[in-house]
Amino acid sequence: MLLKKQKMNSTIIRTDRLCYDYAKGVNTLTNINLQVNRGDIYGFLGPNGSGKTTTLSLLLGLLKNQRGTIEILGKDMQHHRQEILCKVGSLIENPSLYNHLTAKENLEVYREVYGASKSRLHEVLKIVGLNETGKKTVKQFSLGMRQRLSLALALLPKPELLMLDEPTNGLDPAGIMELRSLIGRLREIEGITFLISSHILSEVEKIVNRVGIIYKGRMRFQGSLEELHRLQQQQSLVHLDTSDNLRAWAVLKQLQAELTEHDLVVPYTDIQQVAAINKMLVDNDLDVYNLHPHKQTLETIFMNLTND
Ligand code: ADP
Questions:
Q1: Which domains does the chain have, with CATH numbers?
Q2: Most buried by CB count within 10 Å: which residue of 14, 156, 188, 300?
Q3: Is residue 229 within 8 Å of residue 301, measured between CB atoms?
Q4: Which atom in ligand 1 lies closest to the alpha carbon of residue 217?
């Protein structure tokens, strides 16, 4: 039982002060400390050009790391590259699918390369929902279907970890929903840990449990989705205007109220607290002319974290 628990809590990816420069003097990645735990669906987020693909390329050994260390599945990447990569699947560049072949035929091409069994081939076709496409060739597939076939390819060797680079790119809302539910199913059925990069928080927010936010090659935030939500609550503000803002500020000082030129700004966590603020002012004989709670969205938190 203890062993099982330890396994569940184990770290799958850990980087320590990972740095990368494509050109001398241009820091593409600076001191990236990424931590992905077993069973996580980790959302690696940041605007385009932040360094997500570079990080994934380093994790997959497609680029050679220059400074810092990478540990995957408890092993050091530098010394155990092959051993690690056998257990890792990825969707980082568009894999070469054969347009004139069916889904099954495409998988058959890769099956032997990966040393996968025929039954595994049928299993993955079913998991990604392409087991009934029959004679339809890839050139007749929608983008979503191609995406799922690419995932099926990555699933053939039964990976413990899957890294997906911007998997929602180009998908329509239905395709995004399909992909989300497929990722959830894969975590359940196959126990796969996911690292998913995206530049759009809302597209992955519904499935991830942990988040890393990168901007200009530096990690701006890493933690659970709950921690990101807490940050969101801490940063929600109520704007107030009263008959005497200076006196109102003195009343609300203990709540970290700030007096601006036009109004009074007080952080709040829930709407009951806004009501309590109003009551405090009224109880102190202050007239409240205006009270405007402004709840931060996760999107604005994301925007604030990915700004200079
Ligand atoms: P993201 O995946 O977040 O969009 P990338 O990792 O692709 O970001 O890019 C990070 C930075 O590195 C960008 O400034 C990009 O222009 C630069 N970059 C990416 N690939 C190369 C390359 N092959 N040569 C030089 N610079 C690159």
A1: 2-87+159-227 (3.40.50.300), 97-157 (no CATH), 235-305 (3.30.70)
A2: 156
A3: no
A4: 10
How far is the first Cα of the chain from the last one, in angstroms, to the nearest whole number? 47
54 lines ligand 1 (CB under 6 A): yes
Task: For residue 78, give both structure tokens.
Answer: 């530098």
Backbone torsions φ then ψ of 151, nearest 5 degrees = -65, -40
Residue 157 near ligand 1, beta carbon < 6 Å: no
Burial of 117 (0-12, 13-18, 19+ CB in 10 A): exposed
Per-residue pLDDT of the chain (308 residues; tens, 9 = 90+): 444 444 555 999 999 999 999 998 889 999 999 999 999 999 999 999 999 999 999 999 999 877 999 999 999 999 999 999 989 999 987 778 999 999 999 999 989 888 899 999 999 999 999 999 999 999 999 988 999 999 999 999 999 999 999 998 888 888 899 999 999 999 999 999 999 999 999 889 989 999 999 999 999 999 999 999 888 877 789 999 999 999 999 999 999 999 998 899 999 988 899 999 999 999 999 999 999 998 888 888 898 889 88
Cβ of residue 306 lying under 6 Å from some atom of ligand 1: no
Q: Is the CB of 53 under 6 A from ligand 1?
A: yes
Measured in Å, residue 29 CA sits from the centre of ligand 1 at 10
Which atom of ligand 1 is closest in space to residue 48's alpha carbon? Answer: 4
Q: Write the DSSP symbol of residue 182.
A: H
Q: How far apart are CA 257 and CA 219, in angstroms?
A: 30
